[in-house]
Design a protein that fits this description.
With about 290 residues, this protein is α+β, with helices and mostly antiparallel strands. About 25% of the residues lie in helices and about 35% in strands. Helix 5 packs across helix 6. The two termini are about 30 Å apart.
Length: about 290
């Protein structure tokens, strides 16, 4: 342990210090910072390293669920791991992670997951126990490749929490282990201020059947579809409707399960998992891609 460092959980009075570290480490816009602290921050789920009377390092724990054979087990998304510049080079973030792992294991947590900010960081976190990669598929299209698709008889409708949960289960039911938000939290991600240019949409055909969904975020002229779940034969119908829903978007970037649309998809590591229950380790994982 770093000499003089104390590890524990945050106090409400430390909120301003945490926001300052966030700005120094990640440079987020104020609207995103306010949204995160309003909707997801809780002092009792924020691990901190304190040194010289100051918050020196931090990480945030966001509750998830690991659904194993239809039984929901507690899990956490570890987010915003950061060290104040004045305290870097002392191994505080590594020690803070170890403190957190000990707490989660004692609580009976199944696993924790994080999304490294760059591909190079997967090795950094692998050396800290995150030795399982979650692979996803990605594909990119220009608007003109999508807007010509015949989808005149289909429409997009705003999703509700129950629909998202049902459609996601149907799309990922063949995985023995699913790491996900509960239904209300999934929808909340599309409603917070940080996602004010986003939407959670369901593809509905002329008979009223719900065929799949897309979780979208517009960034300038690029639409990021953070998670798409629809049968492969309906992909271009859904994508074509999205191109009409977002007329300012010129580029479309899609994420989906790794074995989807093999002719178009490039696979890459998306997240890393650390296990606290060894009996789960050999299972293939389907994980929500709505995390950032």
């Amino acid at each position: 342990m770093s000499a003089g460092a104390v590890f524990g959980f945050a106090q409400k009075r430390q909120t301003d210090e945490l926001k300052q570290i966030w700005r120094l480490c990640f440079g987020a816009e104020q609207s995103y910072l306010d949204s995160f602290f309003d909707h997801y921050y809780h002092p009792a789920r924020t691990a901190v390293a304190q040194k010289d009377g100051r918050v020196a390092a931090m990480l945030f724990l966001i509750p998830m669920q690991a659904v194993f054979r239809d039984k929901a087990l507690p899990a956490y998304y570890i987010y915003g791991v950061g060290t104040h510049p004045d305290f870097r080079g002392q191994g505080l973030s590594t020690q803070l992670l170890e403190f957190t792992h000990g707490q989660l294991k004692r609580e009976g947590c199944a696993l924790s997951v994080l999304v490294p900010a760059s591909q190079s960081l997967f090795e950094f976190y692998r050396n800290r126990g995150y030795d399982r990669q979650v692979i996803i598929g990605e594909a990119a299209f220009q608007k003109e490749e999508l807007c010509s698709n015949d989808c005149a008889h289909d429409r997009l409708v705003l999703a509700d929490a129950k629909e998202l949960s049902q459609l996601r289960y149907r799309h990922f039911a063949d995985y023995p282990l699913r790491l996900e938000w509960n239904a209300d939290d999934t929808l909340r991600l599309a409603q917070t201020q940080a996602y004010k240019q986003s939407g959670a949409f369901v593809l509905q055909n002329v008979q009223g059947e719900k065929l799949g969904y897309a979780m979208c975020v517009l960034d300038g002229n690029t639409l990021l579809v953070q998670e798409l779940a629809v049968e492969a034969g309906n992909f271009f119908r859904l994508a074509g409707l999205l191109s009409k829903e977002y007329p300012k978007a010129e580029k479309f970037h899609f994420r989906f399960r790794a074995d989807y649309l093999a002719d178009y998809v490039a696979q890459r590591p998306y997240a890393a998992v650390r296990w606290y229950r060894p009996e789960l380790e050999q299972n293939e994982i389907a994980m929500t891609m709505v995390l950032e």
